[in-house]
Amino acid sequence: MSVAENKLLLDEYITEVWDSANIGAIRRFLSPSFQRHVSPVLPSLDVEDQIDRITGFREAFPDVRLTVQEVTAEDDRVAFRSVFRGTHLGEFAGIPPTGNQVVVGLLDVIRIKDGRFIEQWGGPDLFDLLRQLGATVSATR
To answer: What global pTM score does this model have?
Structure first.
């Protein structure tokens, strides 16, 4: 696929899966061998794990919207910076609903093969998200 087609695929994914809450469409965008890397020390997520992850975010923040602010693409990769906005109306990470409006930055890189996402790295700033939900978050050196 061309760089332009990869960018269009990303836009369709965000619009359909995130903004329109069409969880059933996820499999159309993810390769059966999809791997989501959320940490260098944790096992990667597969398709089912990614579906569970997005479902969990949508249940906790049912009005979630992703606003893409910047996209860079080259060869088979698309990197994007976006903002996640939503209202905390369901449990998230063990935190009961607060009703808080959250605004969180995301950075992601996606590798595309044969018109589907095959690998993904990055995600939301979870420290900032948890802080906005009232959790006590501290980082040590």
So the answer is: 0.89
Other beta carbons less than 10 A from residue 105's beta carbon: 13
Q: In what order do the strands lie in the sheet with 101-113?
A: 30-37, 116-124, 101-113, 77-87, 65-74
Catalogue all structural domains in the chain, each as residue range(s) with its CATH number.
3-132 (3.10.450.50)
Given the DSSP bridges, would you call strands 65-74 and 116-124 parallel, antiparallel or unpaired? unpaired
Long-range contacts of 103-108 (CB under 8 A, 24+ apart): 103/132, 104/128, 104/129, 104/132, 105/81, 106/66, 106/80, 106/81, 106/82, 107/79, 107/80, 107/81, 108/79, 108/80, 108/82
pLDDT in tens, 25-49: 999 999 999 999 998 899 999 999 9
